[in-house]
Amino acid sequence: MVHTDSIQPSRENPLKQKLFVSAVLLALGSAASAQSSIIMFGVLDADVRAVKNGSAGTQKQLGTDGLTSSRLGWRGAEDLGDGAKASFWLEASVAPDTGTANATRFFNRRSTVSLSDPRLGEVRLGRDYTPLFTAYAVYDPFGTNGLGEIVNNTAGISIISALGSGTQTLTRSDNMVSYFLPPNLGGVYGQLSVAPSEGVTGGKFVSGRLGWGNGTFDISAGVAQATVAGGNKFKQAQIGSFYDFKVVKISGQFVQNSYDTPAGGDRKQKTLQFGVAVPVGNGTLRADYINGNMSGGAVGSGFGDADDAHQMALGYQYNLSKRTALYTTVSSLKNKGASKLIVAAGKPGIKGGETSTGYDIGLRHTF
After folding, report:
1. Contact 313, 274 (CB under 8 A)
2. Cβ–Cβ < 8 Å for 290, 311
3. 8 Å CB contact between 66 and 49
4. Is the same domain home to 293 and 345?
5. Contact indicator for 159, 302 with CB cutoff of 8 Å
6. Mean per-residue pLDDT of the chain
7. Contact at 8 Å (CB) between 69 and 96?
8. How many structural domains is the chain composed of?
9. Is the dihedral of CA 100, 70, 93, 89 positive or negative?
10. Most buried among 53, 58, 107, 365, by the most CB within 10 A?
11. Are 64 and 9 part of one and the same domain?
């Protein structure tokens, strides 16, 4: 932005200086009109949290992202005529407890450019959520955030690191080319995404998701495959649905991850989630139950038949306004066998078969 009060008129030729300022403002106005809209947006979410990871003990902390992922971003769209648009989206993680951003890349959450047409659909290029992770958030009453989210208990996207496969495409993918169906198909929606490895092990990726929804009812299914070290495959499949009765919204999803290891073992985890969201007062009460069943790995590896886990969580969000909310969540994750899943970061050193529990009280503000 140019502040005209910072440009001092020349004593020798004030008319020339005024003409110069007018020309600058005219040029900026022309540049702005070329872009239909540019929006800066963000979320700041911080919570006071306590997590007990079995015999490792309890850690109290100021955490982040208990309700919504903190972020800072810019997005914009240019009207190309007849409904067609060119768009961009740049989005970075922010940690409000420390004021830091992602250590390895600034726009780590999303960095895309796209062309869209209401009749033909959208082509999007860049780093973005994978189709299946998008689906997880739709059917998880906790929206893949905080102490109750499904990612705590799904080995494909948890601390077990995709069943040990080393894939880089669990949540987001670099170098991704995606096609989205147009929005005028009677509720049918879909996405197809591919990404080359570009020399990164675990970066080669292909995924698709197809669904139908009308706001009250939604159902979708998706699959994904990543090529990892040695040409082995890490595969995912997901199906989910919700129905909003207005007085209660019921949701559920089933996720299966599998990895054919170089040694020939076929590791699998099947995860089932049921959840509810109930409007209560000026907010929403949420609850879910998640069961994760592991199989195929060696005994004691964390991937074996006995290395299962289940989680229960309850949370409430109170809306102070459209942009500001208070929330609280309690969660308990029970491991079996050699499983060491946790509800959130805390003291390291949980032992196989121990329970991870946590609670938080937080504040989220969007802008």
Report:
1. no
2. yes
3. yes
4. yes
5. no
6. 90
7. no
8. 2
9. negative
10. 53
11. no
The pLDDT tens digits of the residues spanning 275-332 come to 999 999 999 999 999 999 999 999 998 899 999 999 999 999 999 999 999 999 999 9
Mind listing the pLDDT tens digit for each residue in 157-212? Answer: 453 358 889 898 989 999 999 999 999 999 999 999 999 999 998 999 999 999 99
Q: What pLDDT does residue 263 have?
A: 79
H or E element at residue 153: none
Amino acid at 286: R
- Nearest to residue 350, comparing CAs of 297, 309, 294, 313? 309
The per-residue DSSP string of 30-44 comes to HHHHHSSEEEEEEEE
E strands, 166-308, are 172-180, 188-195, 204-213, 217-227, 233-244, 249-260, 266-280, 283-295
137 in any annotated domain: yes
Provide the residue range defining the domain that includes 250: 43-71+111-366
* Token pair belonging to 193: 């995404």
The structure tokens listed for 216 are 């009250």
The C-alpha atoms of residue 186 and residue 181 are separated, in whole angstroms, by: 11
Q: Could you tell me which residues come within 8 angstroms of residue 130 by beta carbon, excluding any fewer than 6 positions away? A: 169, 170, 171, 172, 173, 176, 193, 205, 207, 224
Contact 179, 121 (CB under 8 A): yes
Is 101 within the bounds of a domain? no
CB 93 within 8 A of CB 69: yes
Name the residue among 297, 289, 302 with its Cα closest to residue 335. 302
Query: Both 3 and 121 in a single domain?
Result: no
Cα torsion 156, 161, 164, 166: sign: positive
CB atoms within 10 A of CB 280: 12
Residue 173 has φ and ψ, to the nearest 5°, of -135, 140
